[in-house]
Design goal:
single chain; globular; 6-stranded mixed β-sheet; 12 strands; 4-stranded antiparallel β-sheet; alpha/beta; about 260 residues; Rossmann fold
């Protein structure tokens, strides 16, 4: 089977420590994949390897659209994959619109002006994320949820086929969690954008994903369907704690609840 993104026996070492160990998986175009696992498992490191943020060996066994990842130039890779970090309280001395325009960097030459297409794409990204009323605000003045929308809009402005998301709803209130999840679902289902999302919220992964990859101590402990993940023994092996599965009150599925098994 030819995957859109394929990882084969991939390992990654930082300093003298091997963070990722012999990982293999494939993702089809248009999939929504969640990556779960305990803290320190290597989930964020994996995202940064896929985006080329972390330096990779020349003959790395990661393939995007049939081409080895390291064969892409930085500019060409940025037209394929974008990365949305966590909504941290970093300082950005830009307005919302100025920051989103930075997502157009793969498409413009140094010292050139933004063109009609760039303006159209930025307006579309602002509209998709509901940021019209905040377009002229400074990023530093925004809440965490508003800031996360800006990061997603900047990724949209890159017009990539894959968006990597690192805890896209972490630390957000329920309103902003719902809004972010709705934005991502629309992009995935209506626009066909492939989503790969790291999350600590297993229930969110169950609801939003086509399938799940579970990482522990740098290794893949599970990859497969949501149905197969619904196993308290498997969840205990991944997280080293007990779980219960409770019937969801509306959708007929299950909620995963940590605690002493019944």
């Amino acid at each position: 089977m030819n995957y859109f993104l394929e990882v084969k026996d991939f390992s990654h070492t930082i300093g003298e420590k091997t963070i990722l160990k012999n990982m293999s998986f494939g993702i089809n175009k248009g999939d929504f994949i969640s990556i779960i696992g305990p803290n320190g498992a290597g989930k964020t490191t994996l995202l940064k390897c896929l985006d080329g943020i972390l330096p990779l060996e020349k003959n790395v066994s990661i393939y995007l659209d049939g081409k080895q990842l390291t064969k892409y130039s930085r500019r060409d890779l940025s037209k394929k994959i974008s990365y949305v970090p966590q909504a941290e309280r970093q300082t950005f001395p830009f307005t919302v619109t100025e920051f989103i325009f930075m997502g157009r960097y793969p498409y413009i030459s140094p010292f050139s002006q933004f063109g009609l297409k760039d303006n159209e794409v930025v307006r579309w990204a602002i509209s998709c994320t509901g940021l019209e009323s905040l377009a002229n605000r400074r990023i530093n003045s925004l809440s965490g949820g508003e800031r996360q929308k800006v990061f997603i809009a900047a990724a949209l402005a890159q017009e990539t086929e894959i968006i990597l998301l690192d805890e896209p709803t972490a630390f957000l209130d329920y309103k902003h969690q719902t809004e972010i999840k709705s934005i991502l679902e629309n992009l995935n289902k209506k626009s066909g954008v492939t989503m790969i999302s790291v999350t600590h919220d297993v229930n969110s992964a169950v609801v939003n994903s086509d399938s799940v990859i579970a990482v522990k101590e740098g290794c893949i402990k599970f990859q497969g369907s949501i149905r197969d993940l619904m196993n308290v023994k498997l969840l205990r092996e991944i997280y080293d704690t007990s779980f219960n599965l409770l019937k969801h009150p509306t959708n007929g599925g299950f909620l995963i609840v940590p605690g002493k098994e019944e």
